[in-house]
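Contributing new records

If you add data, match the layout below exactly. Sequence lines come first and carry their own label; structure lines follow with theirs. Keep one chain per record. Anything else will be rejected by the validation script.
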Amino acid sequence: MSVRPTSCLSPRILISACLSRRVYNPEKACFARLFLCQNESMRTLYPPVEPYVRHSLKVEVPHVLYVEECGNPAGIPVLFVHGGPGGGCAPWHRQLFDPDRYRIVLFDQRGCGRSTPHASLEGNTTQALLEDMERIRRHLDIERWMLFGGSWGSTLCLLYAQAFPAQVLALVLRGIFLCRKRDVDWFYQQGASRLFPEAWQDFIAPVSPRRRDKMVQAYYELLTGDDEVRRLAAARAWSVWEGTTSTLDCKPSLVRHFADSHIALSMARIECHYFINDAFIRPDQILEDAGRLEGIPGRIIHSRYDVVCPVDQAFALHRAWPKATLQIVPASGHSAGEPAVAEALLEATDYFAEQLS
């Protein structure tokens, strides 16, 4: 088994113009501020691009999906699949692809981002999201496309590729999340708590001490309860826990983003809804069905010090899907905004732009 190394580089300066005091807005700051320039050889994102078309796609009632297309309409189709579930897309996600070579499709999954209704759990299941992805492909008249996803996005990409292998050109996956019970328990019950004990105290604070032996269940009751004040407080605590632990060094701007009430409510409610239902998949489903990925080229990019989704998940996937390339990124955390992770993702999308053209 070959594991591709990544050079270890030290953070130096923030690179985004969005850090300028003239344009910085703490409520709606550009996500590109999360990226750090590590040295003179570090890759930066592609320039910002705007969508050339936006769609409001009606799927199962009451859901309407936000979908956008960027880049080259005649380019290689790629679907960006965001994390969470419930995270939504951001403008900087477009910048992970060469806009001259890719037809970049982004969408907000049910209940989050610009899709409506916000934070809705009705009809919000993994199977529904996979069908939504197929609806988007058919609606855009795309025969085959590349999938790009991180964290929960990697989960959906893998499940989609296993269900519809003929439609998939390639997979670029970051921060593998296999959605097994032990993976959820690591982050929400016991495991990550030992690495971030101070942040863990804030996470458990909304939950009565007598209920803390089943944190996901306790949070689900808070997040679906009638008390709006407690619901929002729980949502922020849940979401901030993820924001605090997603980078090797805590990024206050990222934590502020996760603390935003609109983002926190969809992230917390939808994530908890999926996890209380075992992500609506069989135990070990992704690994058991890995044979269906045969013939699909893939890049697996995972950080050595990913606390949200530990690297053993990427290793297990690579063992089940050995023809994919596994790249373990040192000195980085879970977020795609970690500098060396972003560089690896850019290298992967550039590689497939060459291979698939």
